[in-house]
C-alpha cells in the first residue's frame, strides 16, 4: 500500500491499518485554532489509502471553514474509515470491531477531536463509539445524544436554495424546476420542502426505494448517470462530493447550485468557471452547516431549538454577504466564502 505525503495545510493526519478487520482508519485534524476539532465519521469503500487520506483531509478543511463561518468555537476535523467491502456486506461483529478500533483512535486525541455521524455511520454507531470510551456527538436520544443532524441540515439547505434562487433572479420556488441528486436523510427532506414550495422536482438516486418515495411526491426520476446533463433552474447536490470539475462547470445547465454534499467542487477552477457563466453557487460549507449547528450547538454550547433556528436563519444572511463580496471583488463565491471564513476565524481567535 503506497501513501504519498502531502502538505494539506492542516495540523495532523493519523492513519491506522488493521489486518484483522481489513479496514483503514484516518483521522484528519485541520485546525485547533478555535477549540477542539470536530467532524463526523465517514465509512465507505475507497479505491486506495491515498484516496481515503485525501478525502479525510479535504473534509477536515471544509469543517474548519464551515465552523469558522458559523462562528462556532471548534476546529475542523474528520474521520474516514476505508471499508474492505460495502457497509451492507459487513457482518455485525466485524462492524462492531471496526467501531471499537475507531473509538480507540478517537480516544487517543484525549478530547481534542470530537466525532459524530457522517455518510456510512448512524446515531446508533455513535452510541457504540461513545460506549467504547470516545466522546461522540449525534448519538441516539435514548443515550442522551441529539440524534440525527440531517433534519437541521435539510432546513439549512432549504434556506440556501431559496437564497441562491433569489440571487439567480427567481422570487420564489413555485414553478421552478429543481434537480436533486441524492435522496438520503438530507436530500429526501429537502425534496419535501421544495415540493411544498411548489417546485417541480427532478430526482436521481442509486437507491430505487428513495426514488420511488420521491416519485410519490410528484417528482420525475432520471438515471443517476444523466444528472449532470439534465436542465434545471436549480441544482441541489445531496449525494457525494467531487462531482463538479471545471469541465462539468462549463457544461452544466442550471441557474444556481445549493446543496448538502460536502466538497461538491473538485477545486477553485470549477468555481471560477461557474462564476464566468453566471451560475450562482452557494458554497457547500455555508449551505450545509445545519448539522454542525445542531450537534455542536446543542451538545457543546447548551443551545435549544430557538438558538439553533436563529443560527440556521443566519445561513441566508451569510450567503447574501458572500454573493455581494464576490460581485464587488470580482471573485468566485467559493473564494469570497473562504475569505469570509478566514476573517471570521482570525476575529474569533483574537477575541478568545
Ligand atoms: P445519506 O447517506 O443519507 O444520503 C446520501 C444519498 O445519496 C443516498 O440515498 C445514496 O443512495 C445517494 N447516492 C449515493 N451516490 C449517489 C450517486 N452517485 N447518485 C445519486 N445518488 C447517490 O447522506 P445524508 O446524510 O443525506 O448526506 C448527504 C450529503 O450531505 C453527504 O455528502 C454528506 O456528507 C452531506 N452532509 C450531511 C450532513 C448531515 O447532517 N447528514 C451535514 C453536512 C453535510
Ligand atoms: C459535517 O457537517 O460535515 C459534520 O461532520 C457534522 C459534525 C459536526 C460536529 C461534530 C461532528 C459532526
From TrEMBL:
Domain of life: Bacteria
Descriptive protein name: Leucine dehydrogenase
Membership in a protein family: Belongs to the Glu/Leu/Phe/Val dehydrogenases family.
UniProt entry keywords in alphabetical sequence: NAD, Nucleotide-binding, Oxidoreductase
Broad enzyme group: oxidoreductase
Catalytic machinery residues: 78
CDD domains per the UniProt record, alphabetical: NAD_bind_Leu_Phe_Val_DH
Organism of origin: Kribbella solani
GO MF term set: L-leucine dehydrogenase activity; nucleotide binding
Record keyword Repressor present: no
EC number from the UniProt entry: 1.4.1.9
Residues reported to bind NAD(+): 182-187
Residue span(s) of domain Glutamate/phenylalanine/leucine/valine/L-tryptophan dehydrogenase C-terminal: 149-352
GO biological process annotation, one example: amino acid metabolic process
Amino acid at each position: 500500500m503506497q501513501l504519498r505525503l502531502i502538505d494539506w495545510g492542516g495540523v495532523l493526519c493519523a492513519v491506522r491499518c488493521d489486518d484483522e478487520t481489513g479496514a483503514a482508519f484516518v483521522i484528519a485534524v485541520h485546525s485547533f485554532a478555535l477549540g477542539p476539532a470536530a467532524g463526523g465519521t465517514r465509512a465507505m469503500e475507497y479505491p486506495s489509502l491515498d484516496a481515503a487520506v485525501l478525502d479525510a483531509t479535504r473534509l477536515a478543511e471544509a469543517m474548519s471553514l464551515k465552523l469558522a463561518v458559523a462562528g462556532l468555537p471548534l476546529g475542523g476535523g474528520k474521520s474516514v474509515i476505508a471499508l474492505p467491502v460495502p457497509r451492507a456486506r459487513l457482518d455485525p461483529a466485524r462492524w462492531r470491531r471496526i467501531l471499537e478500533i475507531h473509538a480507540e483512535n478517537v480516544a487517543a486525541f484525549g478530547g481534542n477531536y470530537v466525532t459524530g455521524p457522517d455518510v456510512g455511520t448512524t446515531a446508533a454507531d455513535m452510541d457504540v463509539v461513545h460506549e467504547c470510551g470516545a466522546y461522540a456527538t449525534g448519538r441516539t436520544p435514548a443515550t442522551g445524544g441529539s440524534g440525527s443532524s440531517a433534519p437541521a441540515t435539510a432546513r439549512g439547505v432549504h434556506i440556501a436554495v431559496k437564497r441562491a434562487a433569489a440571487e439567480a433572479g427567481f422570487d420564489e420556488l413555485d414553478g421552478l424546476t429543481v434537480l436533486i441528486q441524492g435522496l438520503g436523510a438530507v436530500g429526501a427532506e429537502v425534496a419535501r420542502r421544495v415540493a411544498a414550495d411548489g417546485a417541480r422536482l427532478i430526482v436521481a438516486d442509486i437507491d430505487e426505494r428513495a426514488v420511488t418515495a420521491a416519485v410519490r411526491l410528484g417528482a420525475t426520476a432520471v438515471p443517476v448517470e444523466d444528472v449532470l446533463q439534465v436542465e434545471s433552474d436549480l441544482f441541489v447536490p445531496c449525494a457525494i462530493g467531487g462531482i463538479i470539475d471545471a469541465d462539468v462547470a462549463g457544461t452544466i445547465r442550471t441557474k444556481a447550485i445549493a446543496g448538502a454534499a460536502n466538497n461538491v467542487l473538485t477545486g477553485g477552477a470549477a468555481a471560477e468557471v461557474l462564476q464566468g457563466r453566471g451560475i450562482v453557487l452557494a458554497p457547500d460549507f455555508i449551505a450545509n452547516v445545519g448539522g454542525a449547528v445542531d450537534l455542536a450547538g446543542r451538545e457543546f454550547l447548551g443551545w435549544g431549538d430557538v438558538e439553533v433556528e436563529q443560527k440556521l436563519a443566519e445561513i441566508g444572511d451569510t450567503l447574501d454577504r458572500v454573493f455581494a463580496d464576490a460581485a464587488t471583488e470580482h471573485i468566485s463565491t467559493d473564494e469570497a466564502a473562504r475569505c469570509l471564513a478566514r476573517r471570521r476565524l482570525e476575529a474569533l481567535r483574537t477575541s478568545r
